[in-house]
């Protein structure tokens, strides 16, 4: 009885680790509104050069939704566009190119490339895409104190990016006004910090959560093990 | 038991990188290539040269030079097309390396993959174990040093181009490799 309990806990621990390892199979793409998503889905040239391909959205707890499908192909390159979605099938290069233009926040979700069959389940092309579309690039978490130089650089970068997007897609100008306000009147409360510390943040922010995740799981396992041991004394 | 698990997990992070025959050692001609590769790379394409094989360091160095000569002088390329070459002597020969875009598969795959070739023709024969080990060790090294994504994918040349490469026998082997997709 004791041993099965222990094994049970060990399995839960292992499964949770495997689950964590399985999640990275999703490839996350972060974009802001108005941007374009471009994804390359390779397929096996021997098997699928003459097959139809599709781009599907996977709503949480629902049936996959086919957004765009390629036409019946005879192994030649083709392209199909449905609204903001475009598929370019290149069978000579074994690659399916997906493009989603003028992204909106509602586009966020899980997507996948598949080999499409009208009458049976699709063959899934690895890897599923987790798209996260946010409203404004200025709302991304920034350090509490940033140099004026940094602030100006960030806002000029955003302004030029926003401008190029808005001239192409002619959408709402409100966010553009927001960023111009920042460039024209720098905050007098801003203080100076080391620029190099800002560039080191990305690496650190990956290592720390990973180590913390492992440590917390080990701790939980040990605690549960200790509790079950005690209940049998 | 728990401690052993934890230690093993940590050890998995730091693998030693095996030896590689650098360009200077196999007397390569200087590369004229300048297009880089965006790291970390997601794909690895395995091919064979379909040419002569070699099983000693001396003969493999010669073979590497032969392949480079063909690519640079006959095909007019900036360097030998492959990022790395594997000899039946069990050694890895440095081609364009991890950082330079190769010319091994085609316009879509060259910019997004590392091209590793086995020197020889593997339609009817298999490469010796030491050659396969050298390739796998090279790939492990690529991940450890950040050149390859940890979830990199291996493709056979014939999976992405109309070709017999890497040969029936070698293709069957790589299909059994953990990162093959």
What series of H and E elements makes up the topology of chain A? HEEHEEEEEEEHHH
Proportion of helical residues of chain A: 40-55%
**Unreliable spans of chain A:** 19-23, 144-202
Count of DSSP H/I helices of chain A: 5
The proportion of strand residues of chain B reads 15-25%
**What's the average pLDDT of chain B?**
93
Output the number of helix runs of chain B. Answer: 5
Distance between the termini of chain A: 13 Å
Major sheet summary line of chain A:
5 strands, mixed
Structural class of chain B, please? alpha/beta
Number of strands of chain B: 5
Mean pLDDT of chain A: 71
DSSP strand content of chain A = 25-35%
Silhouette of chain B: globular
Shape of chain A: elongated
Rg of chain B, alpha carbons: 16 Å
Under CATH at level 1, the class of chain B stands as Alpha Beta
Radius of gyration of chain A: 24 Å
Known CATH architecture of chain B: 3-Layer(aba) Sandwich
State the strand order across the main sheet of chain A: 1-9-8-3-4
Per CATH, what is the topology of chain B? Lysozyme-like
């Amino acid at each position: 009885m004791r041993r099965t309990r222990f094994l049970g806990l060990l399995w839960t621990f292992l499964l949770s680790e495997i689950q964590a390892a399985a999640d990275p199979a999703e490839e996350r793409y972060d974009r802001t509104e108005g941007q374009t998503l471009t994804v390359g889905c390779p397929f096996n040239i021997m098997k699928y050069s003459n097959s139809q391909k599709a781009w599907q959205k996977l709503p949480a707890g629902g049936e996959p939704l086919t957004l765009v499908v390629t036409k019946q192909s005879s192994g030649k390159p083709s392209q199909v566009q449905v609204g903001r979605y475009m598929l370019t099938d290149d069978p000579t290069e074994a690659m399916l190119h997906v493009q989603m233009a003028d992204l909106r926040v509602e586009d966020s979700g899980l997507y996948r490339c598949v080999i499409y069959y009208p009458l049976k389940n699709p063959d899934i092309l690895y890897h599923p895409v987790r798209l996260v579309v946010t409203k404004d690039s200025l709302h991304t978490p920034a350090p509490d104190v940033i140099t004026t130089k940094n602030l100006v650089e960030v806002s000029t970068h955003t302004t030029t990016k926003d401008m190029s997007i808005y001239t192409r897609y002619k959408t709402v100008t409100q966010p553009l006004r927001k960023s111009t306000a920042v460039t024209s009147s720098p905050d007098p409360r801003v203080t100076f910090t080391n620029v190099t510390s800002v560039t080191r943040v990305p690496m650190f922010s990956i290592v720390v959560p990973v180590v913390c995740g492992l440590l917390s799981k080990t701790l939980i396992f040990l605690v549960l093990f200790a509790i079950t041991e005690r209940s049998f004394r | 038991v728990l401690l052993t698990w934890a230690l093993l997990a940590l050890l998995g992070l730091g693998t030693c990188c095996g030896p590689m025959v650098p360009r200077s050692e196999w007397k390569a001609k200087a590369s004229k290539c300048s297009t880089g590769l965006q790291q970390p790379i997601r794909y690895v394409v395995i091919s064979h040269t379909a040419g002569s094989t070699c099983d000693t360091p001396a003969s493999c160095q010669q073979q590497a030079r032969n392949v480079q000569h063909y690519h640079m002088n006959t095909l007019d390329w900036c360097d030998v097309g492959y990022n790395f070459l594997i000899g039946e002597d069990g050694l890895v020969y440095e081609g364009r390396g991890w950082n330079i875009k190769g010319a091994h598969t085609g316009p879509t795959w060259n910019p997004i993959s590392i091209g590793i070739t086995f020197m020889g023709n593997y339609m009817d024969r298999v490469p010796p174990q030491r050659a396969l080990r050298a390739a796998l060790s090279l790939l492990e090294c690529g991940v450890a040093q950040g050149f390859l994504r940890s979830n990199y994918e291996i493709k056979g040349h014939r999976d992405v181009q109309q070709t017999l490469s890497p040969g029936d026998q070698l293709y069957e082997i790589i299909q059994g490799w953990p990162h093959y997709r």
